Amino acid sequence: MTSQDWQPAAMPSALPGVGNPALSVRNITKRFQRKTVVNDIDLDLFPGEVYGLIGPNGAGKTTLMSMMVGAEMPTLGEIWIEGQLFRQDQNSPQLQRCIGFLPDDYPLYDDLTVWQYLEYFARLYGISPGLRHRRIYDILELVQLSSKHHSRTTELSRGMKQRLGLARAIIHQPSVLVLDEPVSGLDPVARMEFRDIIKALQQSGMTILISSHVLSDLADFCSTIGIMELGYLVESAPLNELYNRLSRRQIFIATLGEGPALAQALDAHACVVSQTRVSDREICVEFAGDEAAAGELLRSLIAAGIPLCQFNHTREDLETIFLKHLDHKQVS
Length: 332
Ligand SMILES: Nc1ncnc2c1ncn2[C@@H]1O[C@H](COP(=O)(O)OP(=O)(O)OP(=O)(O)O)[C@@H](O)[C@H]1O
Prior knowledge:
The chain has helices at about 60-70, 95, 115-125, 130-140, 160-170, 190-205, 215-220, 240-245, 260-265, 290-305, 320-330, and strands spanning about 25-30, 35-45, 50-55, 75-80, 85, 100, 175-180, 205-210, 225-230, 230-240, 250-255, 270-280, 280-285, 310-315. By secondary structure, the protein is of the alpha/beta class.
């Protein structure tokens, strides 16, 4: 198929109880010269969802996001915003206004103050003079830059600049916010400040797509995770489902009683895959169940009269899942 014989397909369907996607792409593909860097991807962002996009350098995350916000023209495929087909060549400013975008590199105009910078964008978005002042004031509060409103943008720290970029991206109150590596190069405190703002936006019901290499941050606030590799979206699932499916769980158990009695009680449990004896009274269990099943194991050991003094349930984190995913792909 070429872009000439492209035909729109049906509108992406709603999820029961969630509604229509706020932003969707169907069969989206991008080629630069002969190289395909985004390959036939379908993706839905549902209202209120925080979707974390991860993948190694060069996987195609920025290119995918740029197409989703209309900044890059797809070679093939469709973009749907709030249930309407978005055609970049037909210039749909009302659809583009539904989206806020913070690219990984964006200009801050050096000769402007923080307030002037936001005012400039508020004017560009046509926010009326009556509303403008209040909007800028509220957004500066949200991004914790109120005290800097007279400062020139050159005087801001990197973390403050990122928060100002975020303020610019939401000045027109978009329903969907797309953030490309917003915390890259920030120190832990600046990252935490940024995370708190994302959580506040999430609580206000904004739909958010965010890419990052800091997976612990994403695990903290994302509801869904997508993994990209070599232009493909190889995984896309709710975070909890990923943990249940891909994360190895272990339980460290210690007893004040006899080790063999503990081992025997563990043998009887269906989710105990293997046991490793750590000491006479300590066993590490590889566990195939979820948190509810671990709770059930704990109750059954107590009911069996095992005098437990430790029961420590751990699961592999998002970073480990991601690295295992890459290893697996390289082996297979
Ligand atoms: N304008 C362009 N012309 C040619 N190739 C490009 C262009 N933009 C991106 N690419 C290539 O597309 C591939 C995907 O790049 P992209 O920036 O989308 O990856 P990414 O997953 O965002 O990487 P990173 O995590 O390093 O930001 C890379 O091989 C890159 O070199």
